[in-house]
## 1
Amino acid sequence: MGVAPIKMPQLGESVTEGTVDKWLKQEGDYVKRDEPLVEIVTDKVNAEVPSPFEGKLVRISVGEGTTVAIGTELAQMEVEGGAPESEPASAAAPSAPAEAETVVPAGRPTAPEPVSEAADGGSRPRLSPAVRRLAEEHDIDPSRLQGSGEGGRVTRDDVLAFLERREAAPSDGAAAPPAAAPAAAPEPAASPSPRAAPGAVGDPREELVRLTAVRRSIAEHMTRSLATSPHAWTLQEVDVTELVRYREAEKEGFQRRHGSPLTYLPFVIQVVCQGLAEFPYLNSTWTDEGILLKRYVNMGIAVAIPDGLIVPVIRDADRLGLSDLARVLDDLVRRARGRQLKPEDVQAGTFTLNNTGATGSVASQPIINQPQAAILTTEAIVRRPVVIGEGIAVRHMMNMCLSFDHRIVDGMMAGQFLGYVKRRLEAWAPADVQV
């Protein structure tokens, strides 16, 4: 018998850390190979990680709610025949480990973080990427902070506390004068009610909802996106009356023939893919060397889940027909809502589509899914009177909203792309179906 380490796998390109959301097995449990072992959350995916070995789980090294770097030991397993020399293929090879902010739940042991050399020749604990980003955003020198973490590590709470003190200080930088001692006063009358004043600490009408790993990852990803690229936004309305009529007439037969529901998204995906071929800068990535144009379309589809949003990817969407798009889309949405997505299901997206109309929205301003150049929303389809020629008719109208990286795309190109998609959807006919 030997002991084999279970390490944090690489759950997506450019991902440097992950959060242990939930252990599915406990110390002492016997675990089969490929049996779900732990739920891991990153800013790319929320996934169940299978056990790379078969054996007894003898130690959980990282507690729930803890964020650690790729390659960090999560647990130890007692296996037959001694410890393997290396991780099996089911656990992706880690990249160079990045430091990670660690929030240690009570009762969970954790190893101290490694230290790096300070400028003065001494040493200090490393900063996690999240803490470093927070300090840089607010122009804070971390060396000025007194760390409260293990070994003097500067934590996120240390940075936030410093910000609160800095904002509360007088603007001229001078220390606030001490308050004069109050004059003696008679004992106040008893309050008629013990109820706290509005906004006071401990107000019974307030509730603190702790952040889940998913919500924290989404918050950091959205903040990083807005800080990375200058967002611009535009909207156009589309008459989708003919598309609505076709879908209403064909949806039951399509379900019987293909086993997948016929929604509006596969039609939009096809037209958007054609538009991206005409305007490739909308399907690109900004780099220091230049703009990287993608001559393929991996379409990200935003899917709402109970505690957030996740974006599975339809690979090579520009090569799929309508029925294949409907089938793949249905499969990804089902697995996203059932927390059954694999790491590869959320990687390598080149453009994102979000059907915000499902919530009744008629206009939205989406945030770009980095490192992509743009994101498109389809809003609610509503019936309303529209001027056509010299008359008025009731039509099915839908808004499309586009957010784009203004470093890559200017307003004219964004409008041309959106206009292309609008014209293709408005002129849509059954003969355009590519099955």
## 2
Amino acid sequence: MYLEKKTEREIEEKIRELRESECLVIFGAGLVALEVGSCLTEKPYEFKIAYFVVTEKKENPERLLSVPVIDLAAASEVIPKSATIVIATMEEHLETIVGSLRERGYFHVIPLTFNNDLWEGIRERHYREYRLSQGKAYGRLEEELERQPLIPQEASQESPAERKTVHLYTAKCHVDKELKEDVSRYSFTIPIQVGAALTEKRICEVCDNVGENISHKNQQYCELTALYWMWKNDMSEYLGLGHYRRYFEVEEETLRRLAESGIDVVLPIPILNIPNVRAIYERDHLIEDWKVMLEGIRKLSPEYVESTEGVEKGRYYYAYNMFIMRREILERYCSWLFPILSYCEKRSGREGGGYQNRYLGFLAERLLSIYFMYHEGEYKIAHVRKHFVDNSLLH
């Protein structure tokens, strides 16, 4: 479990820096800043934020979380150079912001950008408190596995051929960006080319257009064409899915121990949405798609309506369609998921590329949360951090 312990030490160190800061400032005043600010000012942290800083005031609010929002010019007058500045924006703005801060003499910078691994670790502790406030448990994969007796392979009565198989796939596409980071530590995962039916170029040995598949629908279904292929073509005891830029922070040994455990499902650390999941979906996507999804749930799976409302009004959801599940649970999940998506697809009629035409993938992220909210008392669920492959200036 080396990776998990190493990451935990790094997170502890950064939290200590934030706690010991003489002046804590957040750069940003958008949604990421609101979410980071909410997380840091609530339990278990309860930090005090002095200012939110933006490059220019323009249409930014006067206050955020009752804290003043000021521009860089004003910041130079009131914020000491020793301040700790948390950058809470999207990744693409990071390099420019760091440069602007350094020009003004601010060098103690901690990036908590949207996909940042550190932000995920800090958010995980907030999510644990969120669960506890609802009277619900929270389990981390590494903690759950530590409770399991470790059976050395040489002591196992099973032959290698008899041991349970865990196939963790990594969805890749022929149009993916080139990665600068070495991801060879995840070489035990299985690359699967999604949308293989839409191109003659081959980048993986495993393609989602072989056997029973919906590869030709990849522009709308995104990584779900890999999920569908796994459902129909891979009979392994455990199946998992990640992305070429998002990997579960696990080692091969972790997966072996998972197969020997009583854990049913592994999910990533959820995404924080303020004020709630539905409001942020409406901000970022087409609310008409959401309404059709609700209609599909009411008609096809009315017993899930209460859980759907819980996710809508809640602050967290499982993003990216990432998971590791027992085969029988994946079977049940897919048998529930794909009919709802098909219902949405028939009523939308949208085809082709474009960001919003990926709506079935976006809806499925929320449907994953709805499904496991409904079944959380039935399945043993554990959580694990993911690693985002970030090619930006700071990590």
